Amino acid sequence: RRFSRRPAVTLLDVFQLHARRRPHQPLLRFQDEIYTYEDMDRHSNRAAWALSRRLALQSGRTVAVLLPNEPTYVWTWLALAKLGCPMACLNCNVRGRALRHALETAQATLVLASPGERGTTGHSGGFGNIGGLWSP
């Protein structure tokens, strides 16, 4: 029955429900850090604000994300979901032609990546028609 609801219940809806009901409950452990639902909600709200205000990111715009597996990845995903932007998840271990193919297939107009991923497309000159933002 849950899957037939209209509008559909999304992972963002479930996250926000838990963030309201149990904000201090741990959600994510990364190395020695523990992030609660409240922490992740706060970080994702800040990221959403920055993306919408500083970059004029609007709902429906596809964003390619090239981040390592760390908490930033989670709150970036939440921020994009809050803005209504589809996220093209790119494997941060992919390089060269495979990365270029993934970027072109995603048809993203913006790329979010950690500084360590800059210039890993396997050629100089950036991403062609894909606009790029390299953020920490």
Automatic annotation (TrEMBL):
Pfam families: AMP-binding. GO terms for molecular function: long-chain fatty acid transmembrane transporter activity; long-chain fatty acid-CoA ligase activity. Keywords: Ligase. SUPFAM superfamilies: Acetyl-CoA synthetase-like. The keyword Ligase applies. Residues 15-113 form the AMP-dependent synthetase/ligase domain. One of its GO terms (cellular component) is endoplasmic reticulum membrane. One of its GO terms (biological process) is bile acid metabolic process. It catalyses: tetracosanoate + ATP + CoA = tetracosanoyl-CoA + AMP + diphosphate; a very long-chain fatty acid + ATP + CoA = a very long-chain fatty acyl-CoA + AMP + diphosphate. InterPro entries: AMP-dep_synth/lig_dom, ANL_N_sf. Belongs to the ATP-dependent AMP-binding enzyme family. This is Long-chain-fatty-acid--CoA ligase. It comes from Chaetorhynchus papuensis. The lineage of its organism: Eukaryota, Metazoa, Chordata, Craniata, Vertebrata.
